[in-house]
């Protein structure tokens, strides 16, 4: 008992600091994580992606769900949240299997960095891999839905020396083209196609461009 009384004045401050450190770590983790999907947020993604794209097999993806506004309008935002959460989980698993990671940019927009070997079949990876996985039937509170996304892919090897903003821009243009053509995905070309004005894609209303850390805004 005497020994316990002697130890308590020393242990109590230590325990307090440990508890405080755990609380701070939890808050930091929460600040870096999207609460709905569990994916990292934009700032954390930017930091990790800048390192990840140094690998020659790295590829940057941008995803945007198709018809998401209609899901919200028809079934309500609670169901929309279930769709976003499920897409985040499915995307995260697919990315981890390819040595990568994903983030939610906001709304129904996602981005990711993965590694794809030079001889990998991109159509098998994205059409029959990622796209099929994302659109698997999902039972929600209101209905069974099949989320579908337009995907843009920009490989580091196709744009030597490009930084993260340039790779994201290429993926963004490819994603927009896939959405316009009704395709599952599109690869980015070796150079950008659309002109920009003040960091935003020039063209008809509704076009958009992503440049981290400032992220594109989607026209619904």
UniProtKB/TrEMBL annotation:
Superkingdom assignment: Bacteria
SUPFAM superfamilies associated with the record: Nucleotide cyclase
Domain annotation GGDEF: ranges: 56-191
Pfam families, sorted: GGDEF
Gene3D superfamilies in alphabetical order: 3.30.70.270
Classification via PROSITE patterns: GGDEF (PS50887)
Matching InterPro entries: DGC-Regulatory_Protein, GGDEF_dom, Nucleotide_cyclase, Rev_trsase/Diguanyl_cyclase
SMART domains xref list: GGDEF (SM00267)
NCBIfam families: GGDEF
PANTHER family in alphabetical order: DIGUANYLATE CYCLASE DGCT-RELATED (PTHR46663), GGDEF DOMAIN-CONTAINING PROTEIN (PTHR46663:SF2)
Protein name, as recorded: GGDEF domain-containing protein
Protein's organism: Streptomyces albireticuli
């Amino acid at each position: 008992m005497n020994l316990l009384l002697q130890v308590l004045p020393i242990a109590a401050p230590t325990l307090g600091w440990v508890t405080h450190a755990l609380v701070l770590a939890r808050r930091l983790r929460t600040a870096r994580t999207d609460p709905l999907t569990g994916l990292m947020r934009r700032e954390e993604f930017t930091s990790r992606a800048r390192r990840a794209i140094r690998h020659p097999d790295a590829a940057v993806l941008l995803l945007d769900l198709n018809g998401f506004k209609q899901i919200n309008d028809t079934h309500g935002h609670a169901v929309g949240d279930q769709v976003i959460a499920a897409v985040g989980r499915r995307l995260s698993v697919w990315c981890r299997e390819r040595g990568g990671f994903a983030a939610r940019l906001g709304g129904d927009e996602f981005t990711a960095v993965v590694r794809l070997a030079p001889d990998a079949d991109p159509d098998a990876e994205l059409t029959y891999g990622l796209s099929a996985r994302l659109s698997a039937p999902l039972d929600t509170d209101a209905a069974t839905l099949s989320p579908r996304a337009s995907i843009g892919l920009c490989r580091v090897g196709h744009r030597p020396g490009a930084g993260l903003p340039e790779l994201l821009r290429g993926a963004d243009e490819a994603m927009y083209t896939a959405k316009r053509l009704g395709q599952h995905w599109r690869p980015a070309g070796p150079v950008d196609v659309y002109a920009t004005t003040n960091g935003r894609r020039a063209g008809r209303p509704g076009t958009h461009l992503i440049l981290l850390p400032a992220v594109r805004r989607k026209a619904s």
